[in-house]
What we know:
3 domains, two-stranded antiparallel ribbon, two-stranded antiparallel sheet
Amino acid sequence: MACTHTKKFLSFINQVRLDVGENVPYINTGIMMMNLPLMRNEVNLDDIRQYANENKHRFILPDQDILTALYGHRVKVVDALKYNLSDRGIDFYNADPSHEKIDLDWVRNNTVIVHYYGRNKPWKGFYIGILDVLYEEQLARNRKRRYRNNNIKKQVEVINQQLKELVGIYRGAVSHLNISDNEFWIWYSLIMMDGEYSQQDICNMWSFSKQTVNTIIAHLVKKELITLEIVPGTRNRKIIRLTEEGRKYGERIVLPVAEAEQSAFEKLPDEDKNAFTCVLGKYIEILKGEFHETADR
């Protein structure tokens, strides 16, 4: 069972083009119900290959052309307005002045399957039509359904609480140093992490804004704890260098925290260490992807 979207004139054109009988409808392959056991017994792949090779010059939409030509006489046509409705189909139907207009209420009461075909997709920015509401409603239902999974919901809540607690632990560890959390992580980068870093590197590493990093770096330069060195051959890339006083100051801030971190991590079983870093990294990457998809919608 399938639908056709072509009227008499286009049906005639397709019948001539594909050399099929006048009672064979042109089939839309987007929505179909197939009797798979019967098809496996009676549909021959060699017949399809032979027809495709001999008639490829005729094809416009190959899947629909082949299905119509070889098996269109065995397709039961059902109402496209109910089982394969699109905004394009609504526009064509409503263009006939003799028809009662289809609106969203009609769709809700009569249509079983909505088909977003062609370029007009509701998840793209240039969508035009009335059926995007149904997509958004289904999207919301899917989100609610996933969130109703109490086990996952509780696990996510625990993760979020633990992450917030971890942030609180670090905040408490540096609270007596009279510096901000952001400044601490800049010092952490310069003291504990190998390599040379620019302000942009710091932004990327800790997801800081440029303004935040620039303000802190300018303050540290003014206090003569760091200097900025222009990298030869670049337009404006500057590497952050510690002064002697800056290194002593940074080590005084960072080393006690780093020692506590390493001591705590060493107390974990080896399998937990590997699992922790691996799973947390995977979760962060997947979560980023989910947020990007949400933003795109």
